[in-house]
Structures are given as structure tokens and as C-alpha cells.
Amino acid sequence: MRLLDALRFSYYAIVGTPLRAILLVAAMSIGVAAVVLLTALGDGARRYVVDEFSSIGTNLVIVFPGRSETGGFNPANLVTSTPRDLTVDDASALLRIPGVKRISPIQVGTTEINAAGKLREAMLVGTNHAFFAVRNYKLSLGRPLSKTDLKRASAEVVLGAAIRKDIFGKQNPLGKAVRVGDRKLRVVGVLEEGGRGMGMTTDELIIIPVATAQAMLNTNTLFRVMVESRSRKEIEQVKERVEQLIALRHDGEKDVTVITQDAVLKTFDKILGVLTLGVAGIAAISLAVAGILVMNVMLVSVTQRTSEIGLLKALGATATAVKQLFLVEALLLSLTGAIVGVSLGYFGAFVLRYLYPTFPAYPPGWAVLAGFATALGSGLIFGVMPARKASKLDAIQALTKR
């Protein structure tokens, strides 16, 4: 029997029982859509985390106060004990290391900003002039913090876009005085709206000199120090030199954790990549269930179409031809389900991106192809048994059955 004839026969067999066909296609499409959508979520989470870490700058070595005893980087390193302070003097000393382009000490906290009769809370970041270049922050108005000694508590502040809007509205805030905590500061710049990094929007930030922040928060310990190397090739060398210098300054104690940006990216990329494969495997189970459903319905179909099979054999159809007819029918149903499922998966991913614009929920190509292939494979595999059963029916006995 020609393939075109088999396709035509299978098509009419499918449309002749619309409810059965719809149920089979729905089962298969749900399985494929689950694979596409869940992998879009997993891969989207991986891309989101990688993009967030990439947004903090390039060629970075990050110094955390406190020592993690485990080798390499793991997320637990972000929370460390602090036997010795990481100070502004330590940060300044890092500038003398060969291969270091710039450093940015960071102190964080929460505070209140009061100006023009308006009061609101905000996230406070104490840092230096280099912070804006290290973090790739852009300004919509004014300038960044002045290039001054890290120990000098100058009265300058750069506002996030949301802070500027809430306090000053459409007025130009440059040069105006604001009270941040217990300090009176002068606005020198406004950050560009919509900046992001590490899951935090810059619109809600207040950026002041690190010495001013430490005096305001009554602390000498830095939250982090970001060190930018001159090139990607020098990152590992800079990391080793940072560890050696801090140990030398801390009486030989290795009481800081030093990680590279690449190590962070690789670790999270690996973890979330495995997670994506895991959720894809879980979703693929639904395709196996759909394949079993195809087999069961096709077995019932063989029983219901016994007379039809007997007539085909009486007209000269071989066992191979009958088997081919049922396999083609199973494949058509699986193919239709796969196409509908992929469409549903892409639509679901589009809805996710619409609801959460910053989340890159794009189905990876390998997952779409895998879902498509698994749907067709399960339809073929689970369609073999019904096809074999139909091909083994005796023509005379099949014609006499009702």
C-alpha cells in the first residue's frame, strides 16, 4: 500500500471518530506543552541569574568578609562569619595590586530621606566614584560621586529615579539639599530609570560616599569589595594576589572569601542547567502516559473495527499493510498532538514574558525538538501492539464478528 493511500485512510479513520481523536490529541499536546513550558521556566531562570550576575560588571573579583571553608564557590559563601573586619584601608591597599584596574568598596543599609517636606525609606549604598563604572550604572542627570579619598565623608548623594520622583517630582533636584538619616547632603546626580542588578532595581537606591555611610551606620566593616581586573586573562592572578595581600594585612589569617565573577556564573549555570534537565524529564513522563493512552485507545479501536479489518484483508490487504495503517494513524495523532503542544508551550512562555518582562522565558530549541521527538516516538512505540494485533486477525473470522 502506498504511503499516500495509508495517510488518506488514516485521516478518514481519525475524523470519523472526532471525540476519540480530540482526547488523544489533547493528552499528547498537554505532555508536549508541559515539556516546552517547564524547560522555558528552567532555562529562563538560568538566563535570568546569569544576566543578573553579568550586570554587576565585567572581569570582577569580589571580596567578602569572613571565610568559607569549602573550596570554590557555592551560594552559601554569600553568608559568611566575620572574625575580622574588612576595612576601607584594605580596599585602598588592593589598588596597589598589579593587574587591578579599579576597586569599589560597598557598604549597605536602610535609611530615610527627607526633603521638600516629604519622607520615605530607601536602600543606602556607600561606595566611591569607581562604583558607577564597575556596576555599569548610567546617570540621567548630573554626575557620579567625586573622586575623593575613601576616608573622606563628603556631603554628596546620587538618587535613584524613583526616589527623585517621589521627593522632587518633575523638579530638577541637582544642587538641592536632602536629609539622609542624620546627615544633610547635596544631590549631585540621578540614576537612569530602570537599572537592575542582582535582583535589585537601582530606582530605589541612595548612593553616598562610603565614609559617610559608615559614619551614618556606625560601622567600620565593609559589606563587600569589588575589584575589577584589567583583562579577563588576569582574573585568576588578581584573585590570588588579593587573597595574599589581605592575609598579609590580617596577620597571616585567611579570613576573607574571594570569588571571581566567572566562578559564580559557571556554578549557577551548572546548577540551573541540571534543574532544567530535571524538570524536562519530569514533564516527559506525561508523554509516556499519553503514549499509553494512545495504545489503549488504539486497542479498543482494533476491537471496534474488526469488520473493517476483515474487509481490508478480504480485498487483498496484507498483514504488513494493515499494520502500516494503524501505525500511520497513531503517528498522525501524535504529530497533531505534538504540533498543538508546542504551540501551547510557546503561548504559555509568551504569557509568562508578558506578565514578567524581566524574566527571559524562552523555550530552548533542544527541548522543543526533544518534546516533538518524544511525542512521535511514544506514538510509534505504543502504536506497535495495536497494529500487530490488527494485522494478525483472520479475514473470515473478522468479517463474521460484530
Explain the overall architecture.
This protein is an alpha+beta fold. Helix content is 53%, strand content 18%. It is built from twelve helices and twelve strands. It has helices at 3-15, 18-54, 88-94, 131-134, 161-168, 210-217, 235-249, 261-304, 306-314, 319-355, 365-391, 395-400; strands spanning 60-65, 100-115, 118-127, 139-142, 156-159, 177-180, 183-191, 196-197, 200-201, 205-209, 224-229, 256-260. It has a six-stranded mixed beta barrel with strand order 2-3-10-5-7-6. It has a two-stranded antiparallel ribbon with strand order 8-9. A hairpin with a 2-residue loop joins strand 2 (100-115) and strand 3. The two termini are 26 Å apart.
Radius of gyration: 33 Å
Kindly state the mean pLDDT as a whole number? 80
Principal-axis shape: elongated
DSSP summary: helix tally: 12
Terminal-residue CA separation: 26 Å
Subunit organisation of the chains = single chain
Poorly predicted sequence stretches spanning 5 or more consecutive residues: 76-82
Proportion of residues in extended strands: 15-25%
Helical proportion?
40-55%
Strand arrangement in the largest pleated sheet: 2-3-10-5-7-6
H/E element sequence: HHEHEEHEEHEEEEEHEHEHHHHH
- Give a short account of the largest sheet: 6 strands, mixed, barrel
**Structural class by secondary-structure content:** alpha+beta
Number of strands: 12
